[in-house]
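Hi F.,

I've been meaning to write this up properly since the lab meeting, where we talked about keeping a consistent format for the predictions we share between groups. The idea is simple: the sequence comes first, exactly as it goes in, then the structure tokens exactly as they come out, then a line or two of notes. No screenshots and no reformatting. I'm using this chain as the first example so we have something concrete to point to.
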Amino acid sequence: MTLLSRLPNPVRVLLVLLGVGLGLNLRDLAAAAGAPIPALPIPYGGSLLDNALAVLVAVLLASLLRPRGVGLLASLGLRGSGWAGPLWVLVASLACWLGLAALGTPNTALTALDATMLGVLFPLAEEVLFRGLGFVLLVKIVRGPWPLLALPQALLFGMVHWLGFGGFDGGGIALFVGAVIALGGFIFAWLDHLDGDTLWCGLVLHISMNLAWNAFRLDDAVALGWQATGLRIGTALLAVAVLAWHVRRRRGNRL
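Output, unedited:
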């Protein structure tokens, strides 16, 4: 029995969603409260600290709120599930690479540090916070229909990116980006659910697509146009179809 696991489910759900909504903004909240937290004195120091604090929030809340008999790793979707599913998702993500190669040009300015931060570490932190805390833990607590449980974190995921593009000041572009990212957050949770409520399939797709978007340069008009948007959503749905096929085949082999 964890410290707060006896709280009513609505209270635990509220705490989870507060953690998801605020996890990436702790330094902003601290600054507003008059106690600013300085960035790390390294490249990407501010963003890296924001993401590290978000993971810390996810781990802390999962430790306090997870149901009896559910381990910490399982509560965040971090238990092992085998690599066959993630490998199939990785194969499906190649569609994004091929499409972006056709639409854009190689980003020769991309450094190993850029790729590591933007393509690996930041997606990892987002998956732990939004899909781990915001979806997998909710499934463990509420045990309701997974699409309904996947929706709040997807909307919060989209909202964070909407704010990153200026929020209301960003107009239609910010709203469009937020909507596309929210849909992506829902599909990442879908992949995670198909693979036994673990993060690995959604994480592999998130990392691969982030790396692809940083490996190629696209004009803004192209990046926000129907081709690139369709490529992004189509790749994610292809990954769902491929993983669903793999899961059905695996279950059939066990019969």
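Notes:
The chain has a mean pLDDT of 94.
Residues 158 and 179 are 6 Å apart (CA to CA).

If this format works for you, I'll send the rest the same way.

G.
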